[in-house]
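User: Fold this, then the next.

Assistant: Folding the first:
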Amino acid sequence: MRRDGIEAGTLLSVGAALLLWSSAFAGIKAGLRGFAPGELALLRFLTASSVLGVYALLSHMRLPQREDLGRIALGGLFGITVYHLALNYGETSVSAGAASLIIASGPVFTAILSRFLLKERLTPWGWLGIAVAFSGVAAIARAEGGGAALEPAAALVAVAAMSTAGYFVVSKPLLARYSPLEYTAYSMWMGTVPMLVFAPGLAGHLGSAPLDAVTAAVYLGVFPGALAYLLYSRALTKLSASVASSFLYVQPVLAAIIAWAWIGELPQPLTVAGGAVALAGVALVTIKGRAATVT
């Protein structure tokens, strides 16, 4: 990395990964036109797992240690199985833009889980940020429910956001022993296995699904599912985790633009307002929420 800034190649990797991940919310909506949520998740990650499998063979990726298999499987359960099934089922009713805003609250759930499991202290500003972020998420859920009631599917998207916190806490020790790509590949493969329960339904619908839905599922697997992780793992070798994660706050804006261009979806005013409040809370937790460590 240059002393005066971020390398152009690293910036391009981050930007491309972020753009691909942002497109996944609209891609899920497109895929749901031909597949049930579980079937879409399985097809997406069979595709992504195949792509990473080819890469693993070409790069002679090392095998995981036997004692790490249980923790890697738990990471895959949180980061792949629970996250993507909850997000897909949530997006059956919640708009793509609103889903991206709720997912952006993930750092708040990470802060809460880290407080109790990793013993990381939160400042009063951090607890205030958590309250602000949750009020924004509640506003989004109300907007998606038509303004009169909370949309239950928004709770599923919130479960997906919470699962990212579990993934982070489980993954943290393993990322000291495995590269981001190695851990991503192994956790993705293990996280795909439970989705095989949807294989009979996928086999029954694959032949009759609209071409655009199949294309969307394959796109989700190859690009947001595999390529984006490869690009982001490259960026993580050049950037600190805090700098890399700061780019993620742009994701809801990109997701809303892509959803408008791809599926003609426009966010409701209350969704936008709730998203702004939620992101303000997330920023407060991230910037001023954690107490300084005394050594």
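Now the next one, as you asked:
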Amino acid sequence: MVQKFTLIATLFACISLTSKSQIEKGNVLVGGNLAFNSTTRDPAGLSGPTSGLSISPSVAWACKNNRLAGVLLTYRHTGNENKELNTNSYGAGVFLRQYKPLGKSGFYVFAQESLNYNNNEYRQFVSGYSGSYILKSKADDISTGINPGFAFDLTNKVQLELLLNNLVSLGYSQTKSSSIFNTSGIPPFSYKEHSFYINSDFNLDQLSNINVGVKFILGKK
């Protein structure tokens, strides 16, 4: 994974163009991020390979040079070989972002702080001696986090970015779960859970979960 990260950074550096290397006050950035990840069949063989696709359109305004405030929407679909395990999740959030230009190369590093609401859906196949069922869960999640990232001015009006996983996140989640497609002798059931959490999703092993974005810079001369 370290080699993959180095290759991505080198590629960005090679294709960057000479520019003013600055997001100027009054600029508006419109675009979005696209993320994809996949997993293999679970060890117990209860569910097949999964794939996840996430789309996050956003708009941000430069309140100061290299400092942005913006809003975003998110949609995520997770597909499974077992169609009954497919899920859809939605969300919205606000964020602040600070860019640090690296000279005039068109290359930046940035930090993004965000406050998000997500309605996440999960489905899990459960099997036991008395039968099987699918556990369906929906979680209302409010969280705040910090993400590092890299960006490049591909042209004076178009920026490519790579957003990495959370350095740290803090949140509250309320989850409602129930059994569906129950083939066991257990009567249908449902329950609620509440939780507070703090964690970090940033490690080199997760660089395979690439979150790539394109921003169009309006108002830049």
